[in-house]
Amino acid sequence: MTNTVASDPSARPPPVPLATLLGRELRGSKSEKPAVRFGYAALARRGEDHFLIKPDCLRVPGNASSTFSVFAIFDGHNGVSAALFAKEHLLDHVMSAIPQGISREEWLKLLPRALVPGFVKTDIDFQRKGEVSGTTATLVVVDGSTVTVGSVGDSRCILDSHDGVVSLLTVDHRLEENAEERERVTASGGEVGRLNLCGGHEVGPLRCWPGGLCLSRSIGDTDVGEFIVPIPHVKQVKLSSAGGRLIIASDGIWDALSSETAAKSCRGLPADLAAKLVVKEALKTSGLKDDTTCVVVDVGPSDHTLSPSSPGRNQKKIRSLLFGKRSQNVVGKLVNKLPSVGSVEELFEEGSAMLEERLGTDFPRKMNSSTFQCAICQMDQVYTEGLPASPSPYPSPTSKPSVGPYLCAECRKKKEAMEGKRPRATSISR
Question: Which residues form a coiled coil (predicted)?
């Protein structure tokens, strides 16, 4: 079967309401949640890649039926501090942006938007430390058959569905490849160009100056400029009952392998061996030029397993796949054991770098008389300490906001700096 990468948004059917899809799931013949199996592999060159695997998170504390799983890749640069900080704090900041005591349907509906303040707050908190490192971040949340992905940078997540279609769930924020991001950076006060050698000869990929970063979005990078934003591209999909495979990896993989090649190279193998094989294929192609990290997540029916022929023969086949010449016949036999699949439903996608557009006018906010909750940092603030996201002032402390979510003074400064409305030096206290 020929594999293709889904890339034309206009050709896709309109998103199906989440409530409709969840209803189908509940009415289906299989009411239990799909099984989540995962594996990872990593080789370090600089030691700046980090990953997060949390398969047993609870949406409702103490309620085992509210389990969801989280997987993430953080590819650091100019040091490891930002990657470690994001690994430790990003998930908590995202979860704190979702009200407690709501239904699963409401939780899944709010999750894509909650990723935005979660990423921005992580960036603000890290920049307060005054360190100059930065990191990509690709955060994947799996709840039942619903997969939600938020990402900045170029650590990619792909979906390999069982009907042979490979889909990108992220967007690469590389200046070289993204004309829209180049225009945004220059409009916000940055300069985009290649490294200039003696004699005016330009080499290498497009970079943002000051700093020379190749990415237009990241967490950290205090020394580059606030126009390098932490606002994530977000996509949410619902898998069919047959599930699918997620491959989440740093650019050490994607600089060596296309999405289709990575997916094809490990089809039919269990997730732990698949991750090792993807790393092996990347090294075979380009060698260890960068930190190389891969997390493979299989979401599918709980009763589906790969059936080995016999312990001795199966071990020999797996050994040949990982360490010797691969047998196409073996892979073919394993692929044939996978179940048939229906289509993948797209629920949500948004990639705008404008914070006001991403938070929206109906973002959850807490209000009692003159106290409001900032939509980014989640801190309660008295009206006089901050302004609404929109330029329109409130007539009085007790009036309800008419446009945009409430932002405290510090988070509003961050928003304006990202849009090029404030000089970088005064964008936020550090």
Answer: none
